[in-house]
Amino acid sequence: MNAETINIYTDGACKGNPGAGGWGALLVAGTHRREICGGEAQTTNNRMEMTAVIRALEALKRPSRVQVHTDSQYVQKGISEWMAGWKKRNWRTADGKPVKNQDLWLQLDALSGVHEIAWHWVRGHAGHPENERADALANEGVLQVGVN
Questions:
Q1: pTM above 0.85, yes or no
Q2: Which residues pair with 35 in a beta bridge?
Q3: pLDDT in tens, 55-93
Q4: Catalytic (active-site) positions
């Protein structure tokens, strides 16, 4: 396990929900910073929030100690609070419906097993510099799919 803690700041954006979406992530380890972003032509905001975290974790070269900062309560609560119940119920919600975005939750679950991760929710658009940068990257991702 990499001894240095890596801070990951993520955000997703969607123009229309569903609609064109983008995701962005800022990875910070000591003095090193890496920015990544991308987009999809037809998606939802929640899928972009999740994709940002997935792509950031995939970008790590080895198992690491990670602090994930997201302004998405859906992501933070889903991974920290809801997933155990979903798994027990064979990927069904408490009222028996299929879990939305199961494909992405499975990817996130697998990546969570590789790294030692602490999950943090931060208030979006509240002046947090790294979260604001992740938001800007997510909006760049939307532009990559050709939507203003």
A1: yes
A2: 26
A3: 999 999 999 999 999 999 999 999 999 999 999 999 999
A4: 11-12, 49, 71, 125, 135
